[in-house]
From TrEMBL, chains A, B:
Its EC number is 1.1.99.24. It is found in: Mitochondrion. Belongs to the iron-containing alcohol dehydrogenase family. Hydroxyacid-oxoacid transhydrogenase subfamily. This is Hydroxyacid-oxoacid transhydrogenase, mitochondrial. Pfam families: ADH_Fe_C (PF25137), Fe-ADH (PF00465). The lineage of its organism: Eukaryota, Metazoa, Chordata, Craniata, Vertebrata. One of its GO terms (cellular component) is mitochondrion. Transmembrane segments: none annotated.
Length: 402, 402
């Protein structure tokens, strides 16, 4: 892998490379291989290993400062979604040095300006199988001042190249494989059931103002369904046996495939509701094991029960892919059928029994709802509009799953 | 459509646009709409309507000269594969004015140099549903000196944007819909059964030397299968009823989808053998109706009978998508099952009964074989190597289909 990476860098004319990663991964083979290769080939580089898992505006700024000072002509991001997203932001603001941080942040928190400056090449090397960030033009962070997740979204920040090497996934603990796999599962389900691109409003008056998340469309649908089939076939195997290279390779590809899909179509309620869940949880023991994927999937039975009335055929179709027998199911049952299928899927994988297992109780619902409301960027892509009462009911229904 | 096209051009900073098309289409709505929009918005442009259907090196050179003189900063190609391919070549050589024509032409006929110069933006607007050229980095032409089809292949010449507007397909005569649909059918079947990317040799030592056609791979497979499903569902409807917007829209997308697939994976024997078929035919009455698609599909039953022993499961899978009942079929029968399915499919669409219906007889087989031999660019992507005797037998088996 590292030889190709090096040649690609040379083909891009890179003379001074920024390698971004996190402190943990910096000691592990995926980063060490790249480092050795850069050293051996006399390519000038600097390492930034200060990436924060679940980045914030503060951690983005730190990486941006590093990038500005370094005046790099290419970037390599080795890690999970946090690393790739941080690197996208660093590349963007170092290429647009006179911009304020909020210029490119999604409205209404930021100004959501279109990116018109040219960026440097960025090669993304994912080491988890979940975010698909190597394929998307999105960089997500916690905006600490408002205690809200938001992001930067523009196809201009999409990595030039993704090196999807399954060997990087063999070191992942089972819990990380499961939780990042749930992220893939929800990327696929949410993008496939998102509001169709031609029903989204407002329709931008100029193509350059099209949002990164355009609603479901004939291209994203293909990726969503295909990724879902892989999840159905391989996720359990990938979780249970770290040596199952076929399963782990397939999930690594599924992560990229679902990324191509949701990176165009968008996600909706599971993701919108996940941000306060992972932001507010204090007590959960496994917080280090990619809480994002878990926060996303725990509401999925409730969410798809709620959304199914809009596109029941799609909900039934995905239930069937995940193993349900839908021969006698009516479209009216679509939500319940998919929800039951998801519960069984999560139960088989020993997933915690709902938000209560993360330490949440009914008393937390108002804050969870409050934390969801600013996530309009994604929640408005849901096929069905939600009132605050709807959101309360969805959180309540997600307290226990089984 | 034309408003988006215009805004996209403006977003690209276009000040002097080259509009390429052919003389027939220049009078028709797809081109007229673009023209009116350019005029109305005061964008400086020149029209080149000298595109030759089935382009040659001579016709490419003519368009290249036009492009060089015009010093354009953006291109719009409105038409079928011939127009889009001509425009790709014009953009390439006008952007690389000191190159010899053969520099970028595929080896061994040309030098096959990698493209390292930056090209101008090119927006491709397909008006037929077959070539998928709006999605590929390939431009095919007849090299008249050697009487052989060859091309230029580099992702650098891939259009910046494709505007796949189904309304452009409603004017197509049924025969053109059928023949261009056969091109889609074969793009899907050939790319899905092409030699896998990791079995192709030689493996390039540097990623920049990767050929445009890399062999079948997990990404091209998705597009091939999906395009095939659409062909199975919609081609007959699209041929039979010009008003069937759903069917014609679906085939227009299928053309682009299959293009994304084969543009990465490549095609093999049906295409390799088609070039002498369409090049040598003199008498066929419907030559004007996209003979390419017909030349491609007439050998398909013989070709897939021949190739099936290598990847029989894929041959059975595609037969099932096209309507075969494969429950009792063995992998040994895979080729025959797919061939029978294709024959039935072609019979249902009133396709001419084999190469003999195009005026060919056994006596022509040596010249057809001779014309196929230089097509190594594609024939070596077949999953099974072919001797001259094999090629003779394939042409002979394609003389009559039913």
């Amino acid at each position: 892998m590292s030889d190709f990476l090096l040649q690609d860098l040379q083909n891009m004319g890179a003379k001074k490379v920024c390698l971004m990663t996190d402190r943990n991964l910096a000691q592990l083979p995926p980063v060490q291989t790249v480092l050795n290769s850069l050293v051996r080939n006399n390519i000038s580089f600097q390492v930034y290993d200060g990436v924060r898992v679940e980045p914030t505006d503060g951690s983005f700024m730190d990486a941006i400062e590093f990038a500005k000072k370094g005046a790099f002509d290419a970037y390599v991001a080795v890690g999970g979604g946090s690393t790739m997203d941080t690197c996208k932001a660093a590349n963007l603001y170092a290429s647009s040095p006179h911009s304020e941080f909020l210029d490119y942040v999604n409205a209404p928190i930021g100004k959501g300006k279109p990116v018109t400056v040219p960026l440097k090449p960025l090669i993304a090397v994912p080491t988890t199988s979940g975010t698909g960030s190597e394929t998307t033009g999105v960089a997500i962070f916690d905006y600490e001042h408002l205690k809200v997740k938001t992001g930067i979204a523009s196809r201009a920040i999409k990595p030039t190249l993704g090196l999807v090497d399954p060997l990087h996934t063999l070191h992942m603990p089972c819990q990380v494989v499961a939780n990042s796999g749930f992220d893939v599962l929800c990327h696929a389900l949410e993008s496939y059931t998102a509001i169709p691109y031609n029903m989204r409003s407002p329709c931008p008056s100029n193509p350059i103002q099209r949002p990164a998340y355009q609603g479901s469309n004939p291209i994203s649908d293909i990726w969503a369904v295909h990724a879902l089939r892989i999840v159905a076939k391989y996720l359990k195997r990938a979780v249970r046996n770290p040596e199952d290279l076929e399963a782990r390779s397939s999930m690594h590809l599924a992560s990229a495939f679902a990324g191509i899909g949701f990176g165009n179509a968008g996600v909706h309620l599971c993701h919108g509701m996940s941000y306060p869940i992972s932001g507010l949880v204090k007590t959960y023991k496994a917080k280090e094991y990619n809480p994002h994927g878990l926060s996303v999937v725990l509401t999925s039975p409730a969410v798809f029960t709620f959304t199914a009335q809009m596109f029941p055929e799609r909900h039934l179709e995905t239930a069937e892919i995940l193993g349900a027998d839908i021969r006698t199911a009516s479209t009216q049952d679509a939500g319940l059928v998919l929800a039951d299928t998801l519960r069984q899927f999560l139960f088989d994988l020993n997933v915690d029994d709902g938000l209560s297992a993360l330490g949440y109780s009914k008393d937390d619902i108002p804050s969870l709802v409050k934390g969801t409301l600013p996530q309009e960027r994604v929640t408005k892509l849901a096929p069905r509009a939600q009132s605050e009462e709807d959101l309360s009911a969805l959180f309540e229904a997600s307290m226990k799953l089984y």
